[in-house]
Design brief:
five-stranded antiparallel β-sheet; Jelly Rolls; 171 residues; elongated; alpha+beta
Amino acid sequence: MKNNKKVIEMGFQRVNQGIFSHQRDCHVGLVFILAAMTCFLLLIGGCVAPPDYSDGLLENIPAIVDETDYFSLSLLGEDYSEEKEWELSLTSDSTDTILTTLVLADLNISNTDSSILFMMNDSGDTIFQPILLGNIVWSSDIAVNLIGSPKKILFKGENFTGRLEYQILKK
């Protein structure tokens, strides 16, 4: 009986070691592979690329370039309602000429929209004040001795939706 018991125990160990341990290894390997694939898919699938801005402008964030001979304001607005003011670094004397350009595009105007752009000189006088009502491409050359030296730009946005490009260039 002892021999039979030993054979049965040995056979059981063989079965236990042979078939079941191999299956256990397969299950562990399969679980590891599934966990690794899940992590990989979550990492790759969960990544979100930034939006593709072809012009570099972010919505409702004015982009400013302020130099001693150039000022630029660019805005891609979506119901933009803020008042912003910029002191100009532009230096000019009475013999200089100022080229001013304004481009308004893709405007979506309603009855509640009333956005205005101001340019003020060193005396505090308003020397340029367009009301932003429609698409326009406008430019003007004017002598500094006629208007004074530009010192401040003020934008009052009230539900502004569209694209604004405004530049001042000392010539």
